[in-house]
Every structure is written in C-alpha cells, then in structure tokens.
Amino acid sequence: MQKQEKIIEMFDEIAPTYDKANRILSFGVDVSWRKKACAYVLKTHPKNELDIVDVACGTGDMIGIWQMQAKKMTKKILSIKGIDPSRGMLEVAKKKFQGVEFIQSGAQSLPLESDSTDIISISYGIRNVVQRQEALNEFARVLKKGGNLVVLEFTKRDKGGFVAFFRDFYLSKILPFLGALVSKNKSAYEYLPNSIEGFLSKEEFIAELEKSGFKMQYFQSFSFGVSSLFVAQKQ
Ligand SMILES: C[S@@+](CC[C@H](N)C(=O)[O-])C[C@H]1O[C@@H](n2cnc3c(N)ncnc32)[C@H](O)[C@@H]1O
C-alpha cells in the first residue's frame, strides 16, 4: 500500500475516538489555537460575506470554530465546505453539522472551481499530505485573488532547552501511551510524533508557500512553539 493510502486508512480507523483523544491529548488548548487563527483572519479579511473551505477537515473541528467566530464578529459565512479523503472522519463530521457540504477528496487535487473561495484553512492536516507542493498549488488555484490560506500545524522545534526536552518527552512517550489507551490503536499515535519530526521547519514551510505564489501575511507561535499559525495571501 502507498504511504498516502496508509495514512488515510489510519485516520479511518481512529475516526470514532478522534474527538475524545484530541481533547485529552491537547488538554483542550487546541481550541484556543483554532479560535485565535479564525479570529485573526475574520478580523483582517476585507469582505464581510465569505466562502470558506476547510481542507483535511477531519471530524470538522475547524468548521465549528469558523461558525462560532464569524457569528461573534458579525461576519456572514455564505458557504462552508469540508474536504477530507478519510471516509471514517467524514462520517463523524456529517453527524455533527447541518448545512455544511462535505466532499471526500485529497488536498492535492481539489474538486473545486478556480478562484472560487475567500478562505482555505487546513489544521493539523498539511503534514499528512504526501504531495504537499501539489496541494499548495491547488490552494492557490482555488482561492480568489487576495484570499487567505490559514495553516495550523505542529512544526519542528530547535533542539535544546527545558521546554524542548519536555515537549519531546510528551510527544514521544506520553502522547503515544494516552493515544493508544483512548483509541486502542498504538501505531496511529506513534505516527503523530514521527510525522511532526518528518515535517518542515517554519522557514522551510514559508519557502514552500512562496514557491506556490503566496505572500506570507502573519505568523504566530503557540504554547512555546508546539503549534504554529501561518496566514498567507494569494497574490
Ligand atoms: C490530524 S487530522 C486533523 C483533522 C482536523 N483538521 C482537525 O484539526 O482536527 C488530519 C486529517 O488529514 C487528513 N488527510 C490525510 N491525508 C490527506 C490528504 N492527502 N489531503 C487532505 N487531507 C488529508 C486525514 O484524513 C485527517 O482527517
């Protein structure tokens, strides 16, 4: 089986326990990272009525946050779509949301028209996309000129220091143990720290965004660099 297919199959397997595991493993702080990301983009985007696509939507966590923050900031969501290649994750998402269109597809080839959306978000998803540069090119194609790409991701940290030691210990020892306990799938939660290690540094990812025609607009690092927010603009 190809690497990408294996990753999708793994998400199919953990889908029923994904939400529970996510809240436990992140101590709930991922919600505040998501809220800050959506609030920043809604505040700075010049339009008041927006079309949004959430790629690698999983069970729909980002979709819920987009809806909540838009309501708070009196911005109108004209349409919101969730896209993910995992049937299992989409099945959970569909039960949680009404009025959201869910499409089964990978980020590297989006079944969407060019220049058709104002915002694309991808949270904790891009490191799972094997054909990453193709996906970034797709995001640039589908976004309208001036539209925003919003990426939340765990990025590689420089080694050294107490915080780095604690973070590495948590990711390599505690997280796989707790993840396996909740999901009964040990290998899936061993994949997580490995996929973070195998991902890019902040600088390397920004270089890839620029290669696809994006201009970096905003960067924020959360919780001592555990999670990073990248907001880029289509030129
Ligand atoms: C860690 S989950 C994140 C889900 C959700 N965005 C969240 O924040 O909770 C990663 C998601 O990436 C999806 N994924 C894996 N390969 C993908 C690809 N090639 N294109 C798009 N999504 C992909 C998985 O199916 C999974 O739902």
UniProtKB/TrEMBL annotation:
Q: InterPro entries recorded for this chain?
A: SAM-dependent_MTases_sf (IPR029063), UbiE/COQ5_MeTrFase (IPR004033), UbiE/COQ5_MeTrFase_CS (IPR023576)
The residues that the entry says bind S-adenosyl-L-methionine are: T59, D84, S123
Query: What GO annotations for molecular function exist for this entry?
Result: 2-methoxy-6-polyprenyl-1,4-benzoquinol methyltransferase activity; demethylmenaquinone methyltransferase activity
Q: Does the keyword NADP apply?
A: no
Keywords annotated in UniProt: Menaquinone biosynthesis, Methyltransferase, S-adenosyl-L-methionine, Transferase
Q: Name one GO biological process term.
A: menaquinone biosynthetic process
Task: Enumerate the catalysed reactions.
Answer: a 2-demethylmenaquinol + S-adenosyl-L-methionine = a menaquinol + S-adenosyl-L-homocysteine + H(+)
The annotated pathway is: Quinol/quinone metabolism; menaquinone biosynthesis; menaquinol from 1,4-dihydroxy-2-naphthoate: step 2/2
Taking the record's annotation, the residue ranges forming a coiled coil are: none
* Superkingdom of origin: Bacteria
Q: Which Pfam families match?
A: Ubie_methyltran
Reported EC number(s) for this entry are 2.1.1.163
TM helices/strands, residue ranges: none
The protein's matches in NCBIfam families, at most eight in alphabetical order, are given as:
MenG_MenH_UbiE, PRK00216.1-5
Q: What is the recorded function of this protein according to its Swiss-Prot or TrEMBL entry?
A: Methyltransferase required for the conversion of demethylmenaquinol (DMKH2) to menaquinol (MKH2).
**Which family would the database say this protein is a member of?**
Belongs to the class I-like SAM-binding methyltransferase superfamily. MenG/UbiE family.
Instruction: Name it.
Output: Demethylmenaquinone methyltransferase
The species this protein belongs to is Campylobacter sp. CCS1377
